[in-house]
Amino acid sequence: MNAEEITKMLKQVQRGKVSVDEAVDRLRNLPYEDLGYAKIDHHRSLRQGFPEVILARGKDPAQLEGIVRGMLARKHNILITRADAGLYDRIRKLDPRAAFHRLSGAITILRDRKIRGKGKVLVVSAGTSDIPVAEEALVTAETMGNRVQSLYDVGVAGIHRLLGESRHLRGARVIIVVAGMEGALPSVVAGMVAVPVIAVPTSVGYGASFRGIAALLGMLNTCASNVAVVNIDNGFGAGYMASVINRL
């Protein structure tokens, strides 16, 4: 339950359209609902503007179903990251609106399609192999109420591909750049724009890439001042941060 929903409910109480007992019942599980194996943070959307997100990896499918059931009692969007097709089949039985995003492994249940971001979030990938992480960022930002666009496979090995699409860079309010290998692309993009660039190193690469550490260190050492860096393969974190920035 977010601030808009609580305000609406209190006005309904004031007008006599919702009883005090009904309002209390709606608020009963704030700030969290204790399932024993999980404490669903129903208060998070009120504090931070977006509800709790479910990380599927490491959770028993029955636990995930229980968490989703608890969240379905609210009207907000639901995002599950690092899931698979088998889990999607189970979640779809709880709500037919569930959608599986194959490339990122995310599951979404969209019940609120209001655009809350002020501008467009552009997600850029250096290579095709970086797309799964890029898609996680894109799905996250879109689920959080942003207009999103993707621009894939425009890495520095063929920089003309990026230059040829530069109009998309200029049209974005926040840019997420996903790259493995040496991780050079965020610095190049940042030098072309006057907006925040969120760099996401991926574990894509050979040998001395050290599963993304080389890209991470390269991005942290960027000479472009408008770059911030998230953890290796953390598309979700980049999408979330982009959404927060886009609402400012």
List the topology elements.
Blueprint: H1 3-15, H2 20-27, E1 33-34, E2 39-40, H3 44-48, E3 54-55, H4 61-72, E4 78-81, H5 85-94, E5 98-101, E6 106-109, E7 120-125, H6 131-143, E8 147-151, H7 159-163, H8 166-170, E9 174-179, H9 185-190, E10 197-201, H10 213-220, E11 227-229, H11 235-247
Parallel strand pairs: 3-4, 7-8, 7-9, 9-10, 10-11
Antiparallel strand pairs: 1-2, 4-6, 5-6
Helix pairs in contact: 4-5, 6-11
Strand composition percent: 15-25%
How would a crystallographer describe the biggest sheet?
A: 5 strands, parallel
Q: What is the helix content?
A: 25-40%
Q: What's the average pLDDT?
A: 93
Distance between the termini: 21 Å
Overall shape: it is globular
With helices defined by DSSP (H or I, 4 residues minimum), what is the helix count? 11
Read across the widest sheet, the strand sequence of neighbours is: 8-7-9-10-11
Strand segment tally? 11
**Which regions are unreliable across 5 or more consecutive residues at pLDDT < 50?**
none
- Note the run of SSEs as H and E: HHEEHEHEHEEEHEHHEHEHEH
Supply Rg: 20 Å
Class by helix and strand content? alpha/beta
